[in-house]
Amino acid sequence: MASTHRPLSPHLQIWRWGLHMGLSISHRVTGSGNAVGALILVWGFCALATGPEAFAFFMDVMTSLLGRIVLFGVTLSVMLHLCTGVRHLIMDSGRGLDIETNRKLGYAAIFAAIVLTLGLWGGTYWFAGAL
User: Which amino acid positions bind heme, per UniProt (predicted)?
Assistant: First the structure.
């Protein structure tokens, strides 16, 4: 069998890690992690359909400290996935491909995800307190 000398594709050993790589990977991870949120949502709907006792147990779990931490993490995961998805759509349109703009879009996606998460949780607590 004859040996061919084709160039190898650069991989992680050649490219330096950057924000763009981390956000691309986090987009995939949060997409998979959002399945946890979907399972929690399904559990809530099933508990609601099952009866008051099952729903009360679900609410007890979700309003506990651990439940709130998990829900906060799921919210952050959804918002980061949303914001990095918008970033990918912008880049798919041919914009933001230069290094500086790409870096700014990356930081903007992280900032927006944090602001959206805190705004959603803060608004929820404000609205619940206003009742």
Answer: 81
Say if residue 20 carries a ligand binding annotation: no
Q: What pLDDT digit, counting tens, does each position of 92-120 carry?
A: 999 988 989 999 999 999 999 999 999 99
pLDDT band (50, 70, 90) for residue 131: very low
19-130 CATH choice from 3.40.605.10, 3.30.70.980, 1.10.287.110, 1.20.1300.10: 1.20.1300.10
Whole-prediction pTM: 0.83
Cβ proximity of 86 and 56 under 8 Å: no
